[in-house]
Each structure stands twice: as structure tokens, then as C-alpha cells.
Amino acid sequence: MRRTRRSSPRLRIAPVLGLLAALLLPLCITFAPGATAAPAAADPVRVMPLGDSITGSPGCWRAVLWNRLLNSGYTDIDFVGTLPPQGCGQAHDGDNEGHGGELVTNVADQNLLPGRLAATRPDIVVMHFGTNDVWSSIAPDRILAAYTKLVTQMRASNPDMRILVAQLIPMNPASCAACAQRVVDFNARIPDWARATSTERSSITVVDQWTGFSTATDTYDGVHPNASGDDKIAARWYPALTSLLDGDAPSDPGDPGDPGGGRPSCSASFRAPSVWQGGYQGEVTVTNTSASSVTGWTVTVVAADGARLTQIWGGTLTTAADGTATVTNASWNGTLAPGANATFGFIASTPATAGTPSATVSCTARAASS
């Protein structure tokens, strides 16, 4: 794949060939009839990270995600935004649209997004937005109305926009005792909003950033992620984003005949209904978050504190050398209608020093072959 490039001028092949022809004609060297210049390479896929300080100040999960993408061969991408990088200690494409302190309701009310879209022209938006609104006790209905307005503005910028929307990471600041439950209440509303707002041409995929994320171990203040939190956030975005990158390149916004993006998508959530010394029982619920049927799913489980999955039911288990578990559906629970869910369970062994069970889970969906 090509290396990601910033906006550099394209090579002008035709004038160069004309000059070569003029130089070679005296030597009786001519070009073969019908020879044509190679077509110009396609532009990289432009990805906008959109949100508040969790995304942009410094938002080091973006650096982790960028480098994981590059190391996996996804080099034909360009992170875009009107804000520059803010450190993070590792080289990455730091352009972003994460404005510290912003409320998504203010961005919608003040029509701040259209100018930012016009300046950056994203193909995909990766959005974790609303933490400040939840902290400010703004009603979920109003936050979701702001989401809808932003999506409308994204589609006005690019009718084929692909949108990844996070269920927010947990929040438990010392100054807001009610914030933890407010996040839970708001997150519960996002999947239904996404199903109602997603279209075949401009898909919305919900990415569960809440499950398995601990404000005690993955933030430094109950709100903003530390290095462990950055790793978990990037791990959740990665399969959802690569699913879009592995599909087809974003189509030309001016071509209404291009096929849409009604691709299947799913989310996964983890809980531990039973715990004992040296192990626990885990349960993962897979939900079809798209408007199309899912005929199969794969869930990646990264258990915390050195836990290892040893037994499983409701799926087929593959375990990597580092302990990362991959679970594919069983023959009887792979087909899910929009909004439907399936559950698989497992037993995990843990070191004696392990804390409360937690795991980062991510889901990839499959559709029926056409």
C-alpha cells in the first residue's frame, strides 16, 4: 500500500511525456500508438477524530490508533482536523477536531462544525462527544438532537460519510457524584438513535467504549484517560475503523449513483456474573447495531490482569500467545436481526493478585454472501 501523504501536488505526467517526445523524435524514437499515462493514484481516506478534550487534549489514543493502523498495513489514511497534535511521545498524524471543554450541544447550536468540515473534507468521522454535556446535566434528548444535527451537517459535506459514534467512556469525577449514572443512562440511548439515523448510504456504527473501561485504573482524574485508557480506547476504535477501511474507498460525494454503506455492525458488552479466588465466569452480549441483518460475528476479548479464557459456551474460541481471545459465533446464534443480540459465556483463570474482573471486548459482524 502507498505511504500516507499529506496534500502534495499530483505528478503531472502528460507534460513530462510531451517533453520526452520532443527530445526523442530527433533520435527516431517514438511512443507506441495508444500508449497512455498511468492513472493518478487515489487520495488517502481522510479520518476526522471529533470530540472534546478526551479526543484532543492531548487525546493520545489517536497516536496509539494511528500507529496500530500503520503497523497493520493501513498506510493509505490521513487523520484530519483543524487542530494540531499536542505531543503524546510518539510520532503520529496528530490532526484532530477535539476541542477541550466543548459541548456537543454548543457545537450544534452555534453551527461550528460546517466550517471545520469544509476545511478538512473527511470521509470518516470518529466521534466521542458529549462528556461535557453529560457533566452539565443536559438531557439525553437534547444531546441526541445535537448528534442528529451534526450528522446532517456531515452528510451535507459528504453524502457518503461513514460515522463511528462512541458510547462514552465512564466518568466519575470527585466533583460530580451523579455523572457515573448519567453516562450509563445516556449510553443506553445511543444504539436506538443510531439505528434510526443510519442510512444505507451514510452508515452510523456504534462503538462501545464504556464496557471494560475503569475510571479507577484507566483515567488519571475520573474523566480523562491515562496510558492504559488510551490503549483501551484505541483497541475499541480499531476493528470498527478497519471494517470501514476494508470495505470500499469512500465514493465521490458528487456521484449519487454510488452504492451506499449499509454494512452490518455489532457491539459487544462484558460482565462477570460470578467471581471466585483464581477465576471468574464471564459473559459477553453481542448486539446487531446496524440496519441490516448479521449472519455471523467475531468478538475479540482482551481480559485484564493476566486472565485467560479456559472454557467457552455459545461460540468457538481461539487464543493467541499473548492471551487475546477470539470468539466466533456458534451455528445457532450467528444470525441477528437489527437490534437483536446473542450471548456467549466463558470461564477465565486469573492470577492470585488479579482485581475486579474486566475485559476489553470488540465486535466485527458479517453479512450474508450475495
UniProtKB/TrEMBL annotation:
Pfam families: CBM_2, Lipase_GDSL_2. PROSITE patterns: CBM2. Keywords: Carbohydrate metabolism, Polysaccharide degradation, Signal. The keyword Signal applies. Coiled coil: none annotated. Residues 259-366 form the CBM2 domain. Residues 245-268 are annotated as: Disordered. InterPro entries: CBD2, CBM2/CBM3_carb-bd_dom_sf, CBM2_carb-bd_dom_sf, Ester_Hydrolysis_Enzymes, SGNH_hydro, SGNH_hydro_sf. Residues 1-37 form the signal peptide. This is Lysophospholipase L1-like esterase. It comes from Streptomyces africanus. The lineage of its organism: Bacteria, Bacillati, Actinomycetota, Actinomycetes, Kitasatosporales.
